[in-house]
Write a structure and sequence with these properties.
There is one protein chain. The protein is 60% helix and 11% strand. The chain has helices at 6-13, 19-28, 37-51, 57-71, 80-89, 94-106, 115-120, 128-133, and strands at 2-4, 32-35, 75-76, 110-112, 125-127. 38% of the residues are buried.
Length: 138
């Protein structure tokens, strides 16, 4: 199991230069977990794409549905105290700290492309490209 941030989930469904890395990460570990916050963040990205004419409403609904099925059963409420403790120890947003707090609670890494998370929580975070391209040690 790994915790993935919303960007990683988005890369799986929205074509980008990182989509292949997200696919490789899913092949490497298909048990993705995230705080419930991921839904609102992905919906916000999809809203932007709809408004810019990049995605149709129907495509956005399909993507959200597929992503929700992928994450089903592995969405978590993260205790506010855990998030705020990480906020106190870093300059990361509370949103970002939710992913780190969940990773710590589950004792798994958070896979991300967020440079700030990678810099401020090096013991908890691994870059998407590094994770996707690393050798299995299981």
């Amino acid at each position: 199991m790994i915790v993935v941030d919303t960007n990683v989930i988005g890369y799986l469904y929205l074509s980008s230069e990182r989509s292949g890395q997200a696919e490789q990460a899913l092949l490497k570990d298909s048990e993705w977990a995230a705080p419930r916050l991921w839904r609102s963040e992905l919906q916000n990205v999809l809203a932007h794409y709809i408004r810019k004419g990049i995605l149709s409403f129907e495509d956005a609904v399909r993507i959200m549905d597929e992503a929700a099925r992928l994450m089903e059963g592995r969405e978590y409420e993260v205790p506010s105290m855990d998030v705020l403790q990480l906020v106190k120890e870093s300059t990361c947003s509370a949103y970002d700290c939710e992913f780190v707090a969940l990773a710590r609670a589950l004792r798994v890494p958070v896979v991300t492309v967020d440079k700030q998370i990678l810099r401020e929580f090096p013991a908890d975070a691994i870059a998407l490209d590094v994770f996707a391209n690393s050798e299995d040690d299981s």
